[in-house]
From TrEMBL:
This is Serine/threonine-protein phosphatase 6 regulatory ankyrin repeat subunit B-like protein. Gene3D superfamilies: Ankyrin repeat-containing domain. ANK repeats lie at residues 1-25, 27-59, 63-95, 96-128, 129-150, 165-187, 232-264. It comes from the Eukaryota. The keyword Transferase does not apply. Keywords: ANK repeat, Repeat. InterPro entries: Ankyrin_rpt, Ankyrin_rpt-contain_sf.
Length: 314
């Protein structure tokens, strides 16, 4: 009855002794969860008033989700407003460590997120993967929210921006090609140096062919980042050659990328391109960048050996 929003039926059932705490067998959701999912605010209000128990507002389902989390995720503004009025816990976490704010930013419901921010919600709360709402805002391209979250976060003493794998919001913005978010982040000094995972934001931009994002980074940060290395010794040039992202390759070369830099296995960008049959990258590295054709990797292969294994001409 709550799922369908039949308020009179709900009231009649409660008067007959039905419990509002009853949970279904599969999702373990209560009538409160059911009414929230479809935005039945009148039904929700009735349940909350009849309950006369402050704990009911934060009851959790099998995934640890409260009615507030579901209201935010589904974008039901009136339900969010009512739950906040009833003092729902804005910082409650589900089994993945996500809060209502995480969910709101993931699903993009602007008014719901704004209502949460007005409640002094925790900005730097981390989910089970160590990701804060800032990571999700950067990954989803929500530059306005990111800017607002960042201003709040930077005023807090313990502002760690690394997730469990060492990725920062800048990594995520670059990986997903969100130029507006990159611009917002680069306004802050703490993001104008690469911290965290050695697979840097520049690597992230290059591997996904986001040339404009890479250009933003190279313009805003010291030019030495063009030769930064990941934990396998690979430079952004290796990433561009591996994926045959020709425009990115040319961008890096214009910024004086070391064409013959070798990774931990002794492979240069040319070797990586040759080994993967990337003709466009091979052509630029050989004919424009004058890459060394005689260098050998740890297995004593030259670029020519690797190209011949792919039936490529050099």
């Amino acid at each position: 009855a709550a799922f369908k929003g039949h308020t009179e039926c709900v009231e009649a059932l409660i008067n007959q002794g039905a419990s509002i705490f009853v949970k279904d067998n599969v999702t373990k959701r209560t009538p409160l969860h059911a009414s929230v999912i479809n935005g039945h605010t009148l039904c929700l209000r009735l349940l909350l008033e009849i309950a006369d128990n402050p704990e009911v507002v934060d009851v959790k389902d099998a995934k640890g989700q409260t009615p507030l989390m579901l209201a935010v995720a589904y974008g039901h503004i009136d339900a969010v407003s009512l739950l906040l009025e009833k003092e729902a816990n804005v910082d409650a976490v589900d089994i993945m460590g996500c809060t209502a704010l995480h969910r709101g930013i993931m699903t993009g419901h602007e008014e719901c997120v704004q209502m949460l921010l007005e409640q002094e919600v925790s900005i730097l709360c981390k989910d089970s993967r160590g990701r804060t709402p800032l990571h999700y805002a950067a990954a989803r391209g929500h530059a306005t929210w990111l800017s607002e979250l960042l201003q709040i976060a930077l005023s807090e003493e313990d502002c760690s921006f690394k997730d469990n794998q060492g990725y920062t919001p800048l990594h995520w913005a670059c990986y997903n090609g969100n130029e507006n978010c990159i611009e917002v982040l680069l306004e802050q000094k703490c993001f104008r140096e690469f911290i965290g995972n050695p697979f840097t934001p520049l690597h992230c931009a290059i591997i996904n062919d986001h040339e404009n994002c890479a250009s933003l980074l190279l313009g805003a940060i010291d030019s030495s980042i063009v030769n930064c290395r990941d934990d396998k010794g690979r430079t952004p040039l290796h990433a561009a050659a591996f994926a045959d992202h020709v425009e990115c390759l040319q961008l890096l070369l214009r910024h004086n990328a070391q064409v013959n830099a070798a990774d931990n296995s002794g492979k240069t960008a040319l070797m990586m391109a040759a080994e993967n049959g990337q003709a466009g990258a091979v052509d630029i590295l050989v004919n424009s960048a004058q890459a060394d054709l005689t260098v050998k990797d740890k297995d004593l292969n030259t670029p020519l050996h690797l190209a011949s294994s792919k039936s490529m001409k050099m």
